[in-house]
Design brief:
Blueprint: H1 9-30, H2 34-47, E1 53-57, H3 63-70, E2 74-79, H4 82-94, E3 99-103, E4 116-122, H5 131-141, E5 142-153, H6 159-181, H7 184-195, H8 201-209, E6 213-220, E7 225-231
Parallel strand pairs: 1-2, 1-4, 2-3, 4-5
Antiparallel strand pairs: 5-7, 6-7
The structure holds S-adenosylmethionine.
S-adenosylmethionine binds near residues 78 and 79.
Length: about 230
């Protein structure tokens, strides 16, 4: 039995640093490539509002940051795991993407008030140690009318689909993830972290509680992932 990481910043950053090299490969393999589709849906959705500036929080290896840059946005990105950022810098360097990557935490964002039209978080918020403070920080750095878009895992509501998904997520993912990354605890932590995160209406209410307006969510792949959106309107 492998010990799961603690949810402190140092525990979470150490875990992501330890899997940074294999992260992209395993992400696409274990999601059967569907994670790419979810990020495309996020980008298509947020581009409707024609944002010019974006902050990608918990950017990891930079897939969302790079996709935003390719759409012509001025992009900054933060993450607490330096080695994940190293991979992001290498990938963006290869295509000449000018993205400002900074090692920083969501609860202490190193930007001035009202700096961005858009903040994105892909599969990161369930790992934040102090989520409330982070949501307040995000509101602070968003411009008036700016949008927050969050992609996060969830648990399907349909019983049969939930059973299939949970079996895969709790049994297959830790085994394959463990064999390839040699860090089984990171892939055992994944389903545990999803289970302990509020989902659907519950998380939408949390966003409203922290001051976001016009909060909506779209379920993806039968509820395996959810795209939450909310706006800063005072
Ligand atoms: C599952 S990865 C997601 C990476 C990327 N957004 C994607 O879509 O693939 C989660 C990331 O959240 C980062 N993270 C966790 N807690 C954080 C915090 N408090 N502030 C900033 N980043 C954080 C981790 O270091 C990790 O790189």
């Amino acid at each position: 039995m492998t010990a799961l990481p603690d949810k402190s910043k140092s525990g979470i950053s150490a875990m992501f640093n330890s899997i940074a090299k294999n992260y992209d490969f395993l992400n696409h393999l274990l999601s059967l490539g569907i994670d790419k589709k979810w990020r495309k849906i996020l980008i298509r959705h947020i581009m409707k509002r024609e944002p010019k500036t974006a902050l990608d929080i918990a950017c990891g290896t930079g897939d969302i940051s790079i996709a935003l840059w390719k759409k012509g946005l001025k992009v900054s990105a933060i993450d607490i795991a330096e080695k994940m950022i190293d991979v992001a810098r290498e990938k963006s360097g290869k295509i000449g993407a000018k993205i400002k990557f900074i090692c920083a935490s969501a609860d202490s964002v190193p930007f001035e008030d009202c700096s961005f039209d858009l903040v994105t978080i892909g599969f990161g918020i369930r790992n934040f140690d102090i989520r409330g403070e982070s949501l307040l920080e995000i509101r602070r750095v968003l411009k008036q009318g700016g949008e927050l878009a969050i992609l996060e895992f969830a648990t399907p509501k349909n019983r049969l689909w939930r059973w299939i998904f949970k079996s895969y997520f709790t049994k297959v993912v830790p085994i394959i993830g463990g064999i390839i990354s040699k860090k089984r605890y990171a892939y055992s932590y994944l389903p545990v972290s999803v289970d302990s995160f509020p989902q659907y209406e519950e998380f939408a209410s949390e966003l409203e509680h922290f001051g976001f307006k016009d909060v909506q969510f779209i379920t993806l792949s039968g509820g395996v992932a959810i795209l939450y959106t909310g706006k800063k309107i005072d």
